[in-house]
Amino acid sequence: MRNKWNVLPLLALILGMMNLPSVISQQPLPKTVKALQQLPPKQRNELQQKKVRFNQLSEEEKAGYREFNAKLNAAPNQQRLRAVMMTYNKWLLDLDDSLRERILAMPLEQRLQEVVHWVRQEQEQRFKELLDTNLKHDDLLQVGQWYNGWLDRQTENLAELGKSIEDKVAQKIIEQTIDARQRGTIIVFSLLREQGDMKWHDWFEDWKTDVTSLMGSLSETAQLFYASAESDQQRLQLLLRWGYYSFVAQSMQGVTDDELLEFYKSEMSREDRETLDRQQPASVIPMLRRFYFQYRMPEVIKRMLAPTE
């Protein structure tokens, strides 16, 4: 029993690190009969039900809960731990009955691993949905203007960073690209492809300031999308995706709906059509435009995406 209750604070701490959604913190319990009588009927009823359930426990279980509560009260971050436990309970209640029962039936250490697995999976799904969210046209234009300005300010820096690119194909494409902005984009793409994004803030020291200026020009909806990303890495990926969408939007300005319809009928693969057909109505046209763009992707980008030799 003692080992079981020692592990629970660890569970709360790790769940807190997993950034589960916030909930309202627990209200302090009444300390006098008068304070108890002043509680709303619903809250008094909940306390009564908890007391009944507690009285039904064995003496060993009661002692375990009392010990755990004493340790929790002694913790310097007890309010945070209590809030996390409430969040965890809410998360459990939102699960399908079968999954919740399976998790609760596991030994505590295994349960912890399972919870972390599911929380991470939910975070990944939320981020995927975030990436696939279509910005309004005005926001895409703002992103495009901001990105072009950012490339202009980074011209010298990007030229220097480009010297570190080892891929021979990328080097050749960069040398042959005349347009400075397109060349800068290829350098950024190549850096990320070779080195990942761990050095991003070293490469571009004013990035956070630059992004702050962009956010101020976007709609409240777009700002909420950005704020929903859960890490610097996700926020960077989101901005890069928006930049891509903006590039698509600019490239597609002269394409009519009739051309898109003909493309859907005669050029799209069956698999891509089925993917498109599963989308919500509001997402169909934006996704169709992206498919159209991908099928006609400029040669320079196709070469960048091709496997290196």
If you had to describe this structure to a student in words, what would you say it looks like?
- This protein is 75% helix and 0% strand.
- With 309 residues, it is mainly α.
- It has two domains: 2-129, no CATH class; 131-305, no CATH class.
Which secondary structure elements does this structure contain, and how are they paired or packed?
Blueprint lengths: L1 H16 L15 H5 L3 H15 L3 H16 L3 H17 L2 H8 L3 H24 L5 H17 L1 H8 L5 H9 L3 H16 L4 H4 L3 H9 L4 H9 L3 H20 L5 H10 L3 H8 L3 H15 L3 H7 L4
Number of helices in the DSSP assignment: 19
Radius of gyration: 27 Å
| Strand count | 0
Average pLDDT reading = 77
- Low-pLDDT stretches are 1-26, 305-309
Taking the sheet with the most strands, its summary is: none
Summary of the model, kept short:
The chain is mostly helical.
Features:
mainly alpha; disordered N terminus; single chain; 75% helix; 19 helices; 2 domains; 309 residues
